Amino acid sequence: MPRPRRRRLRSPGLIGESAAFSSIVPLLALLFGVLLCGFQAIELYQSRHDEVSRAEASAGNLRRLLESRLVGMFREVELVLIAVEGGVNTRWVEHLSARDPADRARLEQVLRYYSGRLPQAGQVGVVSPDGRLLALDHYGKAWTADVSDRDYLRIMRDDPSIKVYYSRPMYSRIDKRHIVTIVRRIHTADGHFAGLLLSDVGISYIEDMLSGTDYGPHGVVALRDTALDVVARYPAARVPGTPGNHPMAEQMATGQPGGVVRFRSINDGEMRLYSWGWLPGMPYVLAVGLSERDYLTDWHGRILVAGAAGAILAVLGSGIFLLYRRDRRRHAALLEHQKRLRASEARFRRLVNAMPTPVIVTRPDARRVLFANPPSAELLAPGDDDPDQRQLRLDEVERVWLVEKVDEAGDVSGREMPLVRPDGEAMWVLVSASAILFDDGPALLIGINDITARRALEERLQVLATTDTLTGIANRGSLLERGEGLLQLAMRHQRPLSVLMLDIDHFKRINDSHGHHIGDEAIRATVRCCIDTLRASDVPGRLGGEEFAIVMPETGLTDAVLVAERLRVAIGKQAILLDGIAPLHLTVSIGVASHDPARPETFAAMLIRADLALYAAKNNGRDRVEVAD
Length: 629
Description:
Helices cover 46% and strands 26% of the residues. By secondary structure, the chain is α+β, with helices and mostly antiparallel strands. It folds into 3 domains: 24-295, 2-Layer Sandwich (Beta-Lactamase); 359-453, Beta-Lactamase, CATH 3.30.450.20; 467-627, Reverse transcriptase/Diguanylate cyclase domain (Alpha-Beta Plaits, 2-Layer Sandwich).
């Protein structure tokens, strides 16, 4: 028996088959390596695309958040200018150039009332038709200047259709600051140009507002004008002019209201992804740029892992090729081949299990788990009937949507979903899924990224954008928005609505006598008393300083006055304990305005009426309630 066998091995046919086999196997291994590298390259390309998509979404969310803050800040300035317009006689403005003492005194009285109500504004002023400026700053100091050479005077005088004008960045000759100016046209009863109302916003104030958000270690945000010159930027960096071939300029030329561009900054050479958009109704464009170095950090790590895997596969393939070329005997070659395959499989499993993100294969219903790498263990719960049958506990509505979407389109990329851990803790994840075959059956390949921290940050940013940090109630911008919504609802259903304006009496004396910490405690005590006295449906908000407003739905004038009196009495009973001296008792003056369902008006107009009633309460002795006309 041994002799025939040896002869068979030496026969030309068997030797040729062995040689052919030993040549084919290395070619197959090489093809396998190429396909595996190709799959890895596709996965890396897709993961990079996913990272870029997430960066685009994050930049867009940050831009929209900042846009709401900036628009709210500029709209506040417009509302104050509207309020000033209601208290200014055009004759006073026309006589400003003649330096009429009486008219100037009246103008100063109106401006002094409004000059301290805008923390973002350096001054509030009026301009006569021939360019004579009278302005008051926050401290009540009056300034006069000749602004007849300013572009806004010529533009607003020559074009009656322009009601509000936002300037490009300029240098204030009055208080030596870089500013943008908001200008409103005023006219006589017959429509003739009667002068301007203006207020400015310091560039430094805008930059401080932009600096309050995290854009990553190398991210930037910039507010630009129509020529794409920088108005404000964080981190601060100014360059002379903007290149004409700026990518945003190319998109703006097509009439787009916003978009996403990617280019290298001329300031620091950093490659960034920018989400940009026009501020509604304003000649400014806001751009948030996230650095490629920041949002591709994880992807670069995966590149290193893939490179190491490719190097291992290359070494493995070269070893198999040399081994089969060196040893022609079929049995030895097959045994060596099996040994190498087992080693390759072990290495491959170690590489997959070393990946930092959860990868899961489930049945087509996205319930039962068929395969999961180690990072997925903390996300999987045991089955209800069999502990060995692990489950992925997605929100039921989202799970049904995911299954239907994959069945329809074949895959889903970057879907944010709620998920419940085995310990019952809720979290948010970013899910990508594709339909695959697994163990000769249909399945879902699901990649998961934990975005719970990012969602919590976004929710915190939303709270910070709408809440007064000292008192916890609505800030000015949030109150104006909610008040306008409640007023529109009341007008639509012909229901009553009232507004209270509160101001702590002699608040400056409290700050000066006892310190700002006691002033802050007085503000908090007033808010606590309001919350304890008001209904859950009432909306209190802080307009600024010691001034508050309360929106009261389903409340007519009579009930609103009763609530105001009850609130005034309750606040008067508050006592703030002081070291070594008698407790401090607070009083407030309150103005009441009620919406007439038969007379449409804006919420800003209601606030102005309530503010005038508050002003009357101050003039009539304080610690009282006055009703608006």
